[in-house]
């Protein structure tokens, strides 16, 4: 297989699982992560593992993928690596933002809100615009972003991220609506509560969230990054060409149950 996918936030969690899963299917993997220390070492290890799965067709950049300057710097390199062929997938899996309340002792600031919304939603639009302008997105390309039930539930400390998730869904919906006529689809994947490093950053009560999720989820377990990778893989199939502007639930029915 000569097709390539681009994963923003590729080092761990959902992005890491998707990268590994698609590499095993023969896709070339282009990934951005922004890590230091232990997490950077995990990203390097994942890159080595992927290289063994797809004959070395992997490029990771430890750079801030939300930076417009980084986009402009590395998109020509991506074009060179893919020989100008369109990407099969652009996946936004960046989990970095401010988790605090709107009011209280430490209310969110404008700078924190602007950063969270840019990194976790708007950056996907700018990547899509820039890749499309270079003909790196075309018929059969998929745009996907990860959302959560926090996009419509109010939760302690989740306000800024909730706004970003709602914005991402709107951006993805509009991308699919405008580019669908070119055979480019855009969809959001709503994963359930997943025990990842990102979850531990959202709340100190993450272990309680996990246990509550196991009780309320119809399938009596939490979502795994591999579950999400499976759904992404399904959506890359030609049978999914007509799935567009949608939210795909990957949570075992969790969103139909009670609150956390």
SSE diagram, text form:
Elements: E1 4-8, H1 13-24, E2 28-33, H2 37-53, E3 58-62, H3 68-81, E4 89-92, H4 110-133, E5 142-147, H5 159-179, E6 185-191, H6 197-202, H7 206-216, H8 225-235, E7 246-250
Parallel strand pairs: 1-2, 1-4, 2-3, 4-5, 5-6, 6-7
| Radius of gyration (Å) | 18 Å
Mean of residue pLDDT values: 93
Number of helices: 8
Strand content: 5-15%
Classification by helices and strands:
alpha/beta
Amino-to-carboxy terminus distance: 42 Å
- What is the CATH homology-level superfamily? NAD(P)-binding Rossmann-like Domain
Low-confidence stretches: none
Query: Helix share of residues?
Result: 40-55%
Q: How many domain regions?
A: 1
Helix/strand order, N-terminal first: EHEHEHEHEHEHHHE
CATH class value: Alpha Beta
Strand order of the main beta sheet, please? 3-2-1-4-5-6-7
Biggest sheet details: 7 strands, parallel
What is the second-level CATH architecture?
A: 3-Layer(aba) Sandwich
Shape: globular
The number of distinct β-strands equals 7
CATH topology: Rossmann fold
Could you characterize what this model shows?
The protein contains eight helices and seven strands. With about 260 residues, it is of the alpha/beta class. It has a single domain, classed as 3-Layer(aba) Sandwich (Rossmann fold). The chain has a seven-stranded parallel beta sheet with strand order 3-2-1-4-5-6-7, with helices on both faces.
Brief rundown of the structure:
The protein is an alpha/beta fold and 260 residues long.
Notable features of this structure?
7-stranded parallel beta sheet, globular, single chain, 45% helix, Rossmann fold, 7 strands, alpha/beta, 260 residues
């Amino acid at each position: 297989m000569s097709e390539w996918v681009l994963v923003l936030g590729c080092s761990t969690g959902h992005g890491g699982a998707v990268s590994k899963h698609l590499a095993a299917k023969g896709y070339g993997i282009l990934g951005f992560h922004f890590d230091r220390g232990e997490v950077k070492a995990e990203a390097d290890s994942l890159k080595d593992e992927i290289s063994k799965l797809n004959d070395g067709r992997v490029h990771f950049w430890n750079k801030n993928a939300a930076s417009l300057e980084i986009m402009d710097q590395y998109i020509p390199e991506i074009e060179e690596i893919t020989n100008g062929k369109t990407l099969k997938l652009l996946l936004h899996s960046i989990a970095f933002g401010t988790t605090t309340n709107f009011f209280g002792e430490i209310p969110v600031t404008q700078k924190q809100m602007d950063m969270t919304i840019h990194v976790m939603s708007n950056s996907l639009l700018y990547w899509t615009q820039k890749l499309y302008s270079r003909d790196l997105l075309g018929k059969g390309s998929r745009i996907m972003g990860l959302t959560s039930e926090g996009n419509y539930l109010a939760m302690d400390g989740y306000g800024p991220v909730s706004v970003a998730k709602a914005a991402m869904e709107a951006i993805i919906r509009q991308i699919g609506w405008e580019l669908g006529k070119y055979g480019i689809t855009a969809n959001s994947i709503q994963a359930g509560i997943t025990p990842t490093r990102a979850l531990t950053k959202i709340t100190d009560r993450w272990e309680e969230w996990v246990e509550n999720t196991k009780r309320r989820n119809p399938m009596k377990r939490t979502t795994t990054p591999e579950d999400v990778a499976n759904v992404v893989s399904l959506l890359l199939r030609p049978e999914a060409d007509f799935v567009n502007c949608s939210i795909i639930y990957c949570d075992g029915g969790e969103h139909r149950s009670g609150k956390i």
